[in-house]
Amino acid sequence: MILALAVALSAAQVAPPAPAVRQPQPGAEPIPLMIAEPVAMAIAAFDADGDAVVTRAEFTAGVERSFTSVASGQPAIGYIAFGDWAERWLGNRNALPSPFEVDQDGDNRINLVELQARFALFFERFDRDKDGVLKRSELLTVRQMPSPTQPQPQQRPRR
Question: The domain that contains 46 carries what CATH number?
Answer without folding.
Answer: 1.10.238.10
